[in-house]
Amino acid sequence: MQHFLLTLVQSIFMFEMREKTIQKLIAAERNGLKHMDEISSLQRRADGSAGPIRRTALHDTLVNHLRDMIIEGDLEPGTRLHEGQLGEQLGVSRTPLREAIKYLASEGLVELVPSRGAVVKRFSPKDVHDMLTVLRTLEELAGRLACEMATDAEVAEVRALHDEMIDRYKAADRLQYYKLNQDIHTAIVRMAQNSSLVDIHAMLQTRLKRIRFIGHEGPEKWAAAVSEHEEMITALEARDKVRLSEVLGRHLFNAWDRVRASL
Amino acid sequence: MQHFLLTLVQSIFMFEMREKTIQKLIAAERNGLKHMDEISSLQRRADGSAGPIRRTALHDTLVNHLRDMIIEGDLEPGTRLHEGQLGEQLGVSRTPLREAIKYLASEGLVELVPSRGAVVKRFSPKDVHDMLTVLRTLEELAGRLACEMATDAEVAEVRALHDEMIDRYKAADRLQYYKLNQDIHTAIVRMAQNSSLVDIHAMLQTRLKRIRFIGHEGPEKWAAAVSEHEEMITALEARDKVRLSEVLGRHLFNAWDRVRASL
DNA sequence: ATTCAAAATTCTGCATCAAGTCTTTTGTAT
DNA sequence: ATACAAAAGACTTGATGCAGAATTTTGAAT
Predict the structure, then answer these.
(1) Nearest by Cα to A122 from A263, A216, A252
(2) What pLDDT, in 10s, does the model give residues A155-185?
(3) Residues B128, A168: Cα–Cα separation, whole Å
């Protein structure tokens, strides 16, 4: 009987904690750039079989939350991920937290040091350069394929994103501009109809997001990037694969110049 | 018969793991078809115990082991990873097993279904085609970079691997041939001196390993592949980047023909 | 044969226990 | 008195068992 009461109280307490956690997560969701990614990521995982809506697993929520914390700079490179403290802070137990950390380790965002825990991975300038090189090659491929595979509707959609982005650019809304910028690149990759390409591109994009998010480029480089985007769209609409591929390559080649200062 | 020996060796391996403190074990290399290598390495270390004892997490050991089981076909696509049963079979508790599964999920080898467990991911023919397309693009890039960056010593090393592979080919030692084949590709990628490229290439190679390992190509296709490799080496030795890139591309384009039958 | 309910199996999360590592303190020697 | 080394203690990760929740399977009744 005593035991029963104890477990009952425990359950209520647990429920409280979970409610608090969810509220915290929702609150945190408001102010970040994470809304899109979280949703898309969840959908990607959930609608694999187009079945009924499954409740989101705690790992997934945690993985997304931690990833955002790292990208936004709440967890700086080199910081040790303290299981106890971090768990307390997020209102979850250590077990799901550990699983989330392992997941992120496989993604390459954190590094696992045996019997000394996990630290946020620090990217050297060369690492960033290497990633941009690979990303460039992948987007060149995506551009070629997209010109072959894209439907008119998809192209129109990208055009809409582009126009929206230009508006944000003129309004100097840097955050939204940045977000739409990434959306356009992701859309082009998606048009290539290559699942593996989409996966790897998303992964690289995620790893670089932190760098790009932190980096501030000056207005003249910003303008150059916009003009490159303009070229991209026209090339895509003309289904000019060599031109699109070339512009994408140049765009990412220049991206190195834009971020190198902030390293 | 082979399978019997394998399971016997596996049992011994498990017994070893349970007897000795697991932390003392040495993690096997992340790359390669390492089943035999893993065991021999473990025994080597257990007998000699020379050199600094690198502690390794049970997590890593499990990840490597499970990966091998999936690649070799012990766990067929679509089979559910039963935590209790699998844990019992491997002699470990469920917690590290779950962490390993999460890690592999991030790697794309298993799929996580909320509150229904994990299943070995099944790759459709289109998935394989997509992966080969990306891999082709990446190796073309690697070829170009390798011609610029490679030292003479590295080229000589690849030549040695190649000659060894030809020997195995003539001896019809399919397993070793296959292993050396992958080693050569990995070596070329490594020469490109691009860490991100190495990472992603390794990941794709891993995902495709299962397909390629299972697939049996006929002798005439085998000969064609060898001749392509011959071309690769000469192009590399001449530092002819456009030729090497072209051959690598053709090699992987043809790879699709070689594996498509076994899907 | 189909549907609903109950039971069993399996996944998910938490708390506790064990082991290893790092830090601090104390003791000894120069 | 200071410096170095060794031991002890505290802190952190690693691992296991346990309890609750959900899904699937089986059995019975209409």
Answers:
(1) A263
(2) 999 999 999 999 998 998 888 888 899 999 9
(3) 39
Running DSSP on this structure, what letter comes out for residue B171?
A: T
Please name the residues between 90 and 109 in chain A that touch chain B, using a CB distance below 8 Å.
95, 98-100, 102-108
* DSSP codes, A69-112: HHHHTSS-TT-EE-HHHHHHHHT--HHHHHHHHHHHHHHTSEEE
B166, burial (CB in 10 Å: exposed 0-12, middle 13-18, buried 19+): middle
pLDDT score at B30: 31
Q: Who's near A94: CB < 8 A, 6+ residues apart? A: A83, A84, A87
> Which nucleotides of chain C are near protein (any atom < 7 Å from a CB)?
10-16, 19-22
Say whether B114 and A200 touch across the interface (CB within 8 A). Answer: no
pLDDT at A175 (0 to 100) = 84
Cα distance from B57 to chain A (closest Cα, Å)? 6
Q: Which residues of B touch A195 (CB under 8 A)?
A: 126-127, 130
What are A106-130's pLDDT values in tens digits?
999 999 888 788 899 999 999 999 9
> What are the residue ranges of helices labelled H in chain B?
2-19, 35-48, 58-72, 83-90, 94-107, 125-149, 152-170, 174-191, 195-214, 219-237, 241-260
Residue type, A106: S
- Which of B55, B133, B141 comes nearest A194 by C-beta? B133
Taking the model in full, what pTM does it have? Answer: 0.81
Contact residues on chain A for B95, CB-CB shorter than 8 A: 95
